[in-house]
Amino acid sequence: MPSTVPARPSPAAGTPPDAMIALEGLTKRFPGSTAPAVDGLDLAVPRGELVVFVGPSGCGKTTTLKMINRIIEPSAGRVVLDGTDATERPAHELRRDIGYVIQQIGLFPHRTIAQNVATVPRLLGWDKDRIAARTDELLSLMDLDPELAGRYPMALSGGQRQRVGVARALAADPPVLLMDEPYGAVDPLVRGRLQDQLLTLQRELGKTIVFVTHDIDEAIKLGDRIAILNVGGVLEQYATPAELLGAPANDFVRSFLGEERGLKRLSLLTTGDTDLERGPVVDATASAEQAFRVATAEGVDWVGVLDGSRLRGWLWTADLDPVRVVGDHDTHPFWVVIDRDTSLRGAVDAIVTTANQVAVVVDGEDYLGMLFLRDVVRQLAS
Ligand SMILES: Nc1ncnc2c1ncn2[C@@H]1O[C@H](COP(=O)(O)OP(=O)(O)OP(=O)(O)O)[C@@H](O)[C@H]1O
């Protein structure tokens, strides 16, 4: 006789299959507070992605992060880590799988950089040689001079200390990294470099990262996805940076994204993502008459000259000698030649400084096409 008892839901019921971290109805009420700090938060962090929590002060970003590694225990709801309910695992074991980086870094001042980095491997009982090899590897990964290994934290710059903090969090190779305003205390220049380094690291290591900041520009630069939180841990929108900027869910999100939403969106797109125009170009073997026809069809009075796949330069149609092929004429270099990886924001900045309002887009030596301001406007509208 078939059983009438319903099957117990699996621990990861309701969690998308690719979620490394799933927050399910996650709630925190601090004793003595009337309103919850985090209220029924549902959110899945896909494996290998960098998700940014952003929102005004007091919206529950840090509380949520600390519930993931159980520094704070939830009042209700749960955290599912890689398919398993996090509360079912001993907290010390759970934290081995979760690196944690905070703003004040928390390096031990009386221990050397090498000893700081080796904190978790030592706790795990690794032998000396393995610890030394891992420390060297991590310093090199974080672009830190091996000479720093013997120094104390006080003798390092803020940016170096922050990188040591990341090295220490990565020591036992945890699949998940939690970062709480890690770059809040460093100056903007160093901050930019640390952000670039984190993106490179993320590409190389494929960790799942949850990153907390109150800086929307940092969120847009770093996040595969951004969760915009409001006071009380209310999730206002959870989407990719491009989706957020293109279609903010409500006024709160719109105001949080701030001014220059269009320009911020342009910074996420590259010229390679755009439909480029072939532009008024002819091969060097073309006749003057062919060149004139191409320019006229494009509504311009100049033409670009191609040598095979390379764009040699341009000339005025008025300077074309009717009895010579185009390649026999002198050409002018283009003002703006950009790589396919250039952001559309960078491209627009360059285009508006030119007389003919066009940028030539190349892939190495090869000509890919031309980008006019009208193309950028079309891209934004789509
Ligand atoms: N230990 C605690 N006891 C009582 N209330 C707390 C505690 N920790 C945080 N809170 C409250 O919970 C709310 C959320 O705090 P949390 O630190 O998570 O916000 P946050 O978004 O990280 O803020 P910030 O950007 O300022 O760091 C706040 O109202 C805060 O005062």
UniProtKB/TrEMBL annotation:
Signal peptide: none annotated. Residues 21-257 form the ABC transporter domain. InterPro entries: AAA+_ATPase, ABC_transporter-like_ATP-bd, ABC_transporter-like_CS, CBS_dom_sf, P-loop_NTPase. Its EC number is 7.6.2.9. It comes from the Bacteria. GO terms for molecular function: ABC-type quaternary ammonium compound transporting activity; ATP binding; ATP hydrolysis activity. Keywords: ATP-binding, Nucleotide-binding, Transport. Belongs to the ABC transporter superfamily. This is ABC-type quaternary amine transporter. It comes from Egicoccus halophilus. The lineage of its organism: Bacteria, Bacillati, Actinomycetota, Nitriliruptoria, Egicoccales.
